[in-house]
Amino acid sequence: MFDHKAIFLGCVLGMTITAALPGFAQEAGEASQQAAPAPVQPQALDEWNSVIGAGVPGEDLDRAVQGVQALAAGGDPAALVVLGNLYRDGKILPRDIAKAVELYGQALAKGRTDAATKLGDLHRQGVSNGLDVSKALGYYEQAVKAGDAGAKVGMANLYADGVVVPRDIPKALALYDEVLSSGGSWALSPLAALYLKGTDVGLDPAKAVGYYEQAVQAGDVSAIVSLGNIYRDGKILPKDLAKAVELYEQALAKGRIDAATKLGDLYRQGATNGLDASKALGFYEQAVKVGDPGAKVGMANLYADGIVVPRDIPKALALYEDVVASGATWALSSLAALYAKGADVGLDPAKAVGYYEQAAGGGCQCPRFARECLSGWQSRAKRYRQGC
Questions:
Q1: Burial 17-51, CB ≥16 within 10 A → b, else e
Q2: Could you count the other beta carbons within 10 Å of the beta carbon of residue 255?
């Protein structure tokens, strides 16, 4: 039988406690509503970085970039590095080396020593990046002290190049070997590139092939492209365009879009290479979509030649000028060559001289070619200017 008196006293006690805490339920509800948002998990940045790496345009890529930008704005060191990479590469965001340097500097200040390696890499390419190349060694030294393998490879590159520091091939080889012995198989490609210089550095260029083959087996996509270049050029190994095409296609399937440009170049010369020239445009289009300047020049060449596609000089000029405007002075010779065709394409050949002059003295990758063309065109340009 229930004790009604006990039940009554319990109810009274419960009501008294509740009355003594009038805001309990309200405060609990407000606390749940005002709870801080859950912090971004590390895997979110990894996922965004993966989407960015794929580089497929669309909402997923936009969200990934915005997510990285938000994290970087909050000072996340890993996000600062990723955002710096985006500005450095200039494929998804506009290329901005100064911004990349700023972001890497912020990440380094927060303890990301790999940012020092990236700063070393950018400064090592100082001439093309508008940076002080002499600062590269200092950044690499910071990262090497922390055991960063990438910095060791960067420092090895400095000693191999002999520009920032006196050339020291034994020291470069020792640094590469040190990284390899620690399992850094990605050092195989730069080591192969050093051997590729051959007698200029007192090494056997044939050994480059073996290192590139090891790098390919280790999954290095850049090595696939480099090995394709060797078969394409036919200097170290017998020329084998079929093998070069096979390797470039493998690299393209693994995301190396510059391989599409190389395929376009080979197919554009279809008559001499035994390939279907009509396929060139398709390869160039793949690379142009992601802003590859080499592909733009290749496509411009197609429109200038008028063989694979109908000749379209305005379109060719626009493509050349777009590449030159982005800082790629090596496109100047191609632009000059188009003007040199003169009346055949409705252009003033006298303007070829100005472009050849810029190419010969402005960092063109083939300055000797530009100077040779320049010497042949200066006298003719003078006659055009005089109205002869």
A1: eeeeeeeeeeeeeeeeeeeeeeeeeeeebeebbeb
A2: 11
Closest by Cα among 219, 168, 220 to 194 = 168
Q: Is 24 helix (H, G, I), strand (E, B) or coil?
A: helix
Give the phi and the psi of residue 298 in degrees, each rounded to 5: -60, -45
* Residues sharing a CB contact under 8 Å with residue 85, sequence separation 6 or more, in sequence order: 100, 118
Residue 161, Cβ density class (10 Å: 0-12 exposed, 13-18 middle, ≥19 buried): middle
Q: Is residue 384 part of a domain?
A: yes
| Radius of gyration, CA atoms only, the chain | 30
Q: Which two tokens stand for residue 135?
A: 């600062």
Domain membership flag for residue 357: yes
Distances (CA, A) of 272 to 232, 263, 277, 323, 363: 13, 14, 10, 27, 30
Q: Could you tell me the CA-to-CA distances from 112 to 76, 158, 168, 207, 379 in Å, in that order?
A: 10, 22, 29, 36, 57
Domain of 359, in residue numbers: 328-388
Q: What is the per-residue pLDDT across 20-75, written as a single tens digit (0 to 9) for each? A: 444 433 443 444 344 444 444 556 888 887 888 877 788 989 898 999 999 999 99
Q: How far is CA 1 from CA 9, 11, 72, 121, in A?
A: 17, 18, 69, 87
Angle ∠(240,246,248) on CA atoms, nearest 5: 100
> Are 171 and 161 a contacting pair, CB within 8 Å?
no
| Last residue of one domain, picked from the residues 317, 337, 366 | 317
Taking residues 255-260, what's their average pLDDT?
93
Q: Distances from the Cα of 67 to the Cαs of 49, 109, 121, 164, 202, in angstroms?
A: 10, 22, 26, 38, 49
**First-last CA distance in the chain:** 127
Q: What is the pLDDT of residues 339-375, one digit of tens each?
A: 998 888 888 888 888 888 888 765 444 444 444 444 4
3-state secondary structure 329-372: HHHHHHHHHHHHCHHHHCCCCCHHHHHHHHHHHCCCCCHHHHHH
Asked if the structure places residue 303 within a domain, the reply is: yes
Question: pLDDT tens digit string along 5-24?
Answer: 444 434 433 444 344 444 43
As for how many domains the chain has, the answer is 2
Q: Residues 242, 256: contact at Cβ < 8 Å?
A: no
